[in-house]
Input
Amino acid sequence: QVQLQESGPGLVKPSETLSLTCTVSGGSISSYYWSWIRQSPGKGLEWIGYISYSGSTNYNPSLKSRVTISEDTSKNQFSLRLSSVTAADTAVYFCARGRIGSGSYRVYYFDYWGQGTRVTVSP
Amino acid sequence: QSALTQPASVSGSPGQSITISCTGTISDVGGYDYVSWYQQHPGKAPKLIIYDVTNRPSGVSYRFSGSKSGNTASLTISGLQAEDEAEYYCNSYVSSRSVVFGGGTKVTVV
Output
């Protein structure tokens, strides 16, 4: 059974960089696609981006200029960095395993999720 | 890209069937058979219940079914049970190699 666990600071100051790590167990990150998704308080889900088994990345256009997703295959982890944060980046951040649609290379759905980690942006 | 449109809330009585709609555009829902649905209970992570419009992952109840017509996808929950009370989200592939979610629908079992 694949399990994902987010870790990182729960409080980040405005204008600084948010950094989170997702540790994957029960499977290798050298397969599939590995994503970050966030949920602002009382709001819906927002896809942030993913990194593939080959190390290529794809980001939400609205966040692309501030997002970096990287991987450490030796630790079976992948990470999120979001720069220049504001209060609007306050959210629960989930890591998840991304899957492709049948008969395609199009990543769009997520079958395993971490429990989520709450990040607050505040002075 | 804009979020997919879902009704804010849907309610039903135990045993009834309810349907949640998810409306997008030709660039997402209407252009691809790549729609999935998630169930989220308060304080928990979302759980995948439908993918590729109609497919259920192993272990998901047969009471959940998906469909699509044009730019609108739908999730039907039949034989509504108290445990089905949760928030439901749809999502779709977008032509720009992106991913978009719906705003969520709160299901209440009355």
The interface with chain B takes residues 44-47, 58, 60-62, 94, 99, 101-102, 104, 106-111, 113-116 of chain A (CB under 8 Å). The CA atoms of residues 15 and 84 of chain A lie 4 Å apart. The first strand of chain A starts at residue 3 and ends at 7.
